[in-house]
Structures are given as structure tokens and as C-alpha cells.
From TrEMBL:
<comment type="similarity">
    <text>Belongs to the peptidase C14B family.</text>
</comment>
<dbReference type="GO" id="GO:0004197">
    <property type="term" value="F:cysteine-type endopeptidase activity"/>
</dbReference>
<feature type="domain" description="Peptidase C14 caspase">
    <location>
        <begin position="39"/>
        <end position="294"/>
    </location>
</feature>
<protein>
    <recommendedName>
        <fullName>Peptidase C14 caspase domain-containing protein</fullName>
    </recommendedName>
</protein>
<dbReference type="InterPro" id="IPR011600">
    <property type="entry name" value="Pept_C14_caspase"/>
</dbReference>
<dbReference type="GO" id="GO:0006508">
    <property type="term" value="P:proteolysis"/>
</dbReference>
<dbReference type="Pfam" id="PF00656">
    <property type="entry name" value="Peptidase_C14"/>
</dbReference>
<dbReference type="InterPro" id="IPR050452">
    <property type="entry name" value="Metacaspase"/>
</dbReference>
<dbReference type="GO" id="GO:0005737">
    <property type="term" value="C:cytoplasm"/>
</dbReference>
Length: 675
């Protein structure tokens, strides 16, 4: 009889190393020194909690490898698990190989790997490694990032969607004293003897990655997460620690907050995006452990967990409470287009983000009181909601009404029926940056005009009443035609609003702290001319003593706005080190193309706008991202940038309220690409 097909579609590999020793003194030749017990009390409870959460899901296969220290032992001793259930290098690699082979058979499509234990780094800037248990004098073996990346690559090539959670740290730079080398810090100093004993060659049937390349990378590029998602407990130069509860129990901070978040989602039956989950983790760490910032890399279009939505979703903005004075802080400011008196609808962080459910969610109206460069202060509009807003430390908000004086003017032409114009004027109020006018006589210039053409189609024209080829018309008798038109006008308004954004109060000192220089000469009309499939190159140089952050947006002819760095799966932005660092000067390259839909319209050129935001603190711009308004291939190819990111140092950390306003500047580069 044929074997029955497996009933699972998801495979979770849970690894908790609770028995560890520090052997660096032995490697340094100190024969009188004894290994130090560095066992983690929270590592195995982390795995138990994840196992409990996933165990109730019928489609999930769970493989658990743990090393638990006997509770009655105060000295270094063997774990209580049987050898086949221990997180040894052989056992872990065997399980990963089983997952790869199952992917080749097309059985499980989703993989979740959760590691809770110690990390280490080979050298100050070398590859990192997970510290696994081994029954020997040194008590450990290393699973290098190069080997782990090979395994994950094979899984994704087999069509598997992989999520990797690393509740450990890989920076020893701040773990240099006995006070900081406590048992709650999830880092162990590198032991070259353990590393040599761990090297077994090619475990996953492919050539290992170039270690020389890895030697100059930080955490986000050590795994080069193309096609999978990574969440780590802290930034590349931070340490991760354990939470100690009143009863003496311990948990890894990332594991604990992630478990709490997922259980809250399940309890409420809500669905949110990866971005909102990540923002919630950031907010919780900000409130409880500001020295530790969870990081996210790679793809966010896939999910192992129930309750998480694929894709970008609605661009909510995080709201958190200032720990010192209790003020409500919106994680957006002048650089994001926020203006005083702007109104937002705030929701509980675990409110559903499914567009079908949002109208039924109970929100709290909030208003911007003070706008700073990268953040803003919020106040509750209705005093009756003050008690409710005080019950939660973190919220999320979406724009409701904008009072910006820079709204994009558009005119409804007389050819539109009166009833249509009335509905459009009403519906336009829900689009923050759109200003519609129905005046018979033009009192001010309009960037766009809307007509009903002779074919009974709604048509958007430019300010000179010329047809815009990249904007298809909308038949008036089509389903939800006016709603479609209003959405399109709001999209165009957002596009032009951010395209034209500049810092109205620039800081000369900050603008002099960096250099942005594009290759090639600009014509008298301000445009740089490039040939189809040639490269646009930008040199960025940090001239200051502090980190700067770079976000690159491409405003495309399909009316799409994308974060170029994120498209290359490199995080939300680049982090440029201070001027004395060897990577304080970098060169970015993008291959520019005339998209297919432009060529199909017998046009020989297209125009791109690359908008660069430079900030003194890390921040995100979810409100700028826009989808295409028509079909068409991308104008720029992110592969070159992705390759560059594979050799560049950068990180991701939260914008922190440290009493100093962040600074920002922006610059546009106009690129005309011709066949």
C-alpha cells in the first residue's frame, strides 16, 4: 500500500540551547582557568512557548531540539534530553537537510526556524555563527552563517517560504567586562578551536559562500536574505538579553514579545501586516529595552503565521508613548508631510488591517499638536477617549485629514455632470493631499484637469489640457467608476506631493555633512540623459562624525513609487558610517530601462525621478509607497543595487526619542532614459 501523504503544510524547526560554557580562556592558553558556565535560563522556555503556540495548528509539523540544564545542578552538567533531541551541529544540519529534501518533493511550503541561544562572530567584522551544544570539554560547535545561508537558499529554490528568527546577538564589542558577561547576555566570545572542530566542509551539497565577502558584512548581509524573512533580536552592534520576571523565570526578549504579539492576534482574530507586527515589536522594545532594537531583513510578502497578511497593506504609522512625560508620539514629522492640526484615526495595534474589516474597527481620532522633523506630538480630540488611549502603550494610526498648504490642485471641468462633480468633491475629502475645485472659471493653476470626453469616459489631463498617455481612461458606465476616479486622483496627488517635497527650513550644517553626486552631466533643462539599459551611478559620502541614513525612492512613469533599497531586499534604508570609516563613501548603481508599456505606445523615452532622503536618525516612509496605476515593467532594475548591498555595511534601528530632533534633507535627480 502506498504511503499516505503528509497532512502538514508548514514545518517549524525550534532550536533552544540552554546549556553553554565560555571556553575562551582555554583557547588563550590559560591552563589554570576553568570553563565558565554561560547557560541560558530562558532559551528552552522560549522554545517551549513557541511549541505551545504552534502545537494547536493541525497543519504544522514541529521538530524541537533543546538542551536543558538539570534544575538541581549549579555546576556545568550534561543536558537532560536524549542525544537525538539535542541541538548539536549534526542534529541541526540533519533536520535542515530533511526540510530541503521535503521541499524538493513539494510537500511543505512554509518553514519557520527559531533559534534561541548564544551567538558569536568570527573576528570583529567576520561571519557570525550560532553556538550549538556538543558533548565535549568545550561544549560547543558553530553553525556558520555561510552554511545556514546555503541551507536557506536551497529551501527557497525549492519553492519554500522561509521565516528565520534569531534570538541571540553577534556583537562582542560591548561585552568586554565581567559585569556585562552575565548569563543573560546571548553572546559568547569566539573560540577558534571550536570553530576548527566545527568545520566539516560542504554540508548542504553546494559550494560555501565566499568567506572573504562575508568578512566585511554586517548581520543583514551575512545571510543575504533574498526570498526569505529574518527577524533578529538586536542590531549588529547591540547585545540581546533575557527578561527576568518576579518569579525568577527568564525569557529571551524577542521570543517573549513575538509570542505575546502572535497570541494576541490569534485571540482577537485580527489580521495585520508584517510591517505592523515589526513596528509593534520596535515599540515594545523601545518602552522596555531601549538599548536593544529588533531588526527585520528580506521579504515581507510571505508569512508562516496565521493573522499576518501578505503584501504591504495600509500604510499605518506607529504611535508610542514618551516614557518620560507620557506624550503620544507619531513616528512621522515634517519629512513625511505632516502638518499641524492634521487628523489621524488611531487603532489598537492588534486591530485588523484587512480592508474589509477596517470600517468596523473602533478608532480614536487624534490631532497633530506639534510637528518636528521626524516625529510629531498627538493629542486626543475627544476627551472621552483619553482613558481608552491611556490603556495601551502602543497604537497605530492612518491619516484622516491633512491641513498642508501644499495640497495638489486639480480642476473638475464643466464637461462633467453636476452630480458627478458633487460626489467627487465629497469623496476627495478622504484623500489627504488632494485639492479639488469645480469653479467654472479657473482662479488658480491646476496640475491636473478631469473631463468627460466624447467617448463618455473620465479622462485625466495635464495642466495644459493635454491627454496623459500613461493614464487610461475610465468608462463612466463601468462598475464603481467614480470611486475608481477618486482613488486615481488621490494617488496622483500623493505622487506629486512627495515628488515636490523639500525641507522648507533646511539646516546648512546638516546639508554640509554629506555629499550626493551623480555621474554624468545635466542638461540645461535639468535632466540627465541616459541610454536604455545603461547605469545611473550615485556617489554618497558621509563627511560627518555621525551615522547618516539614506532612503531612495523611484517615482516611475507607471505612477508607482517604490523604495529602491527595499526592492533589493536590503531593508528600509541604508546606514552610512562616519567619515573615518572605510565605507563612509559608497557608489550606488541602477540599470535604467524604458519600460515595455512605453515602447508599446511607440514612445522612445521615459522620465524617472530619483528622490533621496538623508536623515540623522533612522525613519521609515510607508506613506510614500504607491502601486502602479497601469501595467508595465519596472523602469529600473534593482539587481545591481542588490549586488552592491551584498558588499556594504548597514543596519536598521528605530528612531529613538532621545531629546534631540532628527535632521533631514532631500534631493531630486531627474533622469531621462531613451532607446
Amino acid at each position: 500500500m502506498a504511503d499516505s501523504e503528509p497532512t502538514w503544510t508548514h514545518w517549524a524547526v525550534l532550536i533552544g540551547v540552554g546549556v553553554s560554557i565560555d571556553t575562551i580562556s582555554l583557547s588563550q592558553g590559560d591552563q589554570q582557568s576553568r570553563p565558565r558556565d554561560r547557560s541560558l535560563k530562558g532559551a528552552v522556555p522560549d522554545i517551549a512557548a513557541v511549541n505551545d503556540y504552534l502545537g494547536s495548528q493541525s497543519k504544522v509539523k514541529i521538530t524541537k531540539l533543546t538542551a536543558t540544564k538539570p534544575s538541581d545542578e549549579d555546576t556545568i552538567s550534561a543536558p537532560i534530553e536524549a542525544p537525538g533531541n539535542l541541538p548539536t551541529l549534526d542534529n541541526v544540519c540533519s533536520v535542515l537537510q530533511d526540510v530541503i529534501e521535503e521541499g524538493m518533493r513539494g510537500q511543505s511550503k512554509h518553514v519557520y526556524i527559531h533559534f534561541s541561544g548564544h551567538g558569536t562572530r568570527i573576528g570583529s567584522e567576520g561571519p557570525f555563527a550560532l553556538v550549538l551544544y556538543h558533548d565535549s570539554a568545550r561544549g560547543a560547535r558553530y553553525l556558520r552563517s555561510t552554511e545556514l545561508a546555503n541551507a536557506l537558499d536551497l529551501m527557497t529554490k525549492n519553492g519554500m517560504h522561509v521565516t528565520l528568527v534569531l534570538d541571540c546577538c553577534f556583537s562582542g564589542g560591548v561585552v568586554r567586562t565581567d559585569e556585562l558577561r552575565g548569563s543573560d547576555i546571548r553572546f559568547i566570545e569566539y573560540d577558534p578551536v571550536v570553530d576548527a572542530e566545527s568545520n566539516a566542509g560542504n554540508r548542504f551539497g553546494r559550494e560555501p559562500r565566499d568567506n572573504t565577502r562575508d568578512s566585511v558584512l554586517k548581520l543583514d548581509r551575512l545571510l543575504d536574505p533574498k526570498g526569505y524573512t529574518i527577524i533578529t533580536a538586536c542590531g549588529p552592534n547591540e547585545t540581546s538579553s533575557e527578561i527576568e520576571f518576579q518569579n525568577g523565570a527568564r525569557r529571551g526578549a524577542l521570543s517573549y514579545f513575538l509570542d505575546y504579539s502572535l497570541r494576541s492576534l490569534r485571540k482577537g482574530g485580527a489580521r495585520i501586516t508584517h510591517q505592523s507586527l515589526y513596528q509593534y515589536l520596535q515599540a515594545r522594545f523601545h518602552a522596555r529595552y531601549p538599548q536593544q532594537t529588533p531588526m527585520r531583513y528580506g521579504s515581507t510578502d510571505i508569512s508562516f503565521f496565521q493573522g499576518l497578511m501578505d503584501g504591504p497593506g495600509i500604510p499605518f504609522v506607529a504611535v508610542f508613548r514618551n516614557a518620560k512625560d507620557g506624550r503620544l508620539i507619531l513616528s512621522a514629522g515634517q519629512a513625511h508631510g505632516v502638518h499641524e492640526k492634521d487628523e489621524y484615526d488611531a487603532y489598537s495595534y492588534f486591530a485588523s488591517e484587512d480592508p474589509k474589516h477596517i470600517p468596523n474597527q473602533k478608532s480614536i481620532k487624534m490631532q497633530v499638536q506639534t510637528v518636528e522633523n521626524l516625529t510629531s506630538d498627538l493629542v486626543v480630540v475627544d476627551p472621552a477617549d483619553a482613558k481608552r488611549i491611556a490603556s495601551g502603550p502602543t497604537w497605530k494610526a492612518k491619516p484622516l485629514t491633512s491641513f498642508s498648504p501644499r495640497k495638489i490642485p486639480m480642476r473638475l471641468m464643466p464637461s462633467l455632470p453636476d452630480l458627478d462633480r458633487e460626489q467627487l468633491l465629497r469623496d476627495a475629502q478622504s484623500h489627504s493631499f488632494l485639492q479639488l475645485s469645480a469653479e467654472e472659471r479657473e482662479t488658480e493653476s491646476s496640475l491636473f484637469n478631469v473631463i468627460l470626453n466624447t467617448e463618455n469616459d473620465y479622462e485625466v489631463q495635464d495642466g495644459a489640457l493635454n491627454k496623459i498617455p500613461s493614464l487610461p481612461t475610465i468608462p463612466r458606465d463601468s462598475y464603481q467608476a467614480l470611486n475608481t476616479l477618486t482613488t486615481r486622483l488621490g494617488h496622483l496627488a500623493t505622487f506629486k506631493f512627495f515628488e515636490s517635497m523639500e525641507n522648507q527650513e533646511p539646516d546648512p550644517a546638516f546639508e554640509g555633512s554629506f555629499l550626493l553626486q551623480a555621474e554624468g552631466s545635466v542638461g540645461q533643462d535639468g535632466w540627465l540623459e541616459l541610454k536604455h539599459q545603461s547605469s545611473w551611478k550615485l556617489t554618497v559620502k558621509n563627511l560627518s562624525e555621525s551615522l547618516i541614513y539614506l532612503v531612495i525612492f523611484n517615482f516611475r512613469p507607471s505612477w508607482e513609487v517604490c523604495n529602491v533599497v527595499w526592492e533589493a531586499e536590503g531593508g528600509d534604508f541604508l546606514q552610512i558610517p562616519p567619515r573615518h570609516h572605510p565605507d563612509s563613501e559608497i557608489e550606488l548603481a541602477l540599470s535604467m530601462e524604458v519600460p515595455d508599456f512605453v515602447q508599446a505606445a511607440d514612445q522612445q523615452q521615459c522620465e524617472d525621478i530619483m528622490k533621496i532622503f538623508v536623515t540623522s536618525k533612522s525613519t521609515s516612509f510607508p506613506g510614500i509607497i504607491l502601486p502602479k496605476l497601469r501595467d508595465g515593467s519596472m523602469r529600473s532594475n534593482p539587481d545591481q543595487l542588490s549586488n552592491f548591498l551584498g558588499t556594504f555595511i548597514r543596519g536598521f534601528c528605530e528612531t529613538r526619542s532621545d531629546g534631540h530632533q532628527g535632521k533631514w534633507a532631500t534631493q531630486n535627480f531627474l533622469i531621462r532614459t531613451s532607446m
